[in-house]
């Protein structure tokens, strides 16, 4: 039931298993399984945010009781998915972002290949927003 935040895209994920000493199998809130580098994961506590702890590499020889059903570990995500949110939703849910700036975010998203952000760094092109603070407060992600 270990929760981590993927530092590349900001998603909160559940650590399912260690794939090898460099990669982990994780599951996001939508149930999608992904393999990500352990270096991209930072421990996450609901209500507190990132703790700064990194997962330790493990070998495959760790014994796990496979008959026990794991509890649901990923809480509902209250952050804004910049790839799915409308301009109105962005303006309402991110403090300091007005409707005209939210429209610029959506226009930028629509101009990108695949019409979606690949990482949080791309959104920094939109001015008038303190993106460092928004990302630090963990208000947005790209999914």
Protein traits:
143 residues; SH3 type barrels; 2 domains; six-stranded antiparallel sheet; elongated
Structural class: alpha+beta
**Whole-number average pLDDT?**
85
> What helical percentage do the residues reach?
10-25%
Oligomer: single chain
Major sheet strand order: 4-3-2-1-5-6
Number of strands: 8
When the domains are counted, the total is 2
From the alpha-carbon coordinates, what is the Rg to the nearest angstrom? Answer: 17 Å
What's the overall geometry? elongated
From the N-terminal CA to the C-terminal CA, the straight-line distance is: 21 Å
β-strand percent reads 15-25%
* Main sheet characteristics: 6 strands, antiparallel
Low-confidence stretches: none
**Count of DSSP-assigned helices:** 3
What is the strand and helix layout of this fold?
Elements: E1 3-6, E2 12-18, E3 23-28, E4 33-37, E5 41-45, E6 49-50, E7 80-81, H1 87-93, H2 99-111, H3 131-136, E8 140-141
Parallel strand pairs: 7-8
Antiparallel strand pairs: 1-2, 1-5, 2-3, 3-4, 5-6
Can you offer a commentary on this structure?
By secondary structure, this protein is α+β, with helices and mostly antiparallel strands. It has 2 domains: 3-50, SH3 type barrels (Roll); 80-141, no CATH class. 18% of the residues lie in helices and 23% in strands. It is built from 3 helices and 8 strands. The strands form 2 sheets. It has a 6-stranded antiparallel beta sheet with strand order 4-3-2-1-5-6, with no helix packed on it. A two-stranded parallel sheet has the order 7-8. The protein is elongated and about 55 Å long.
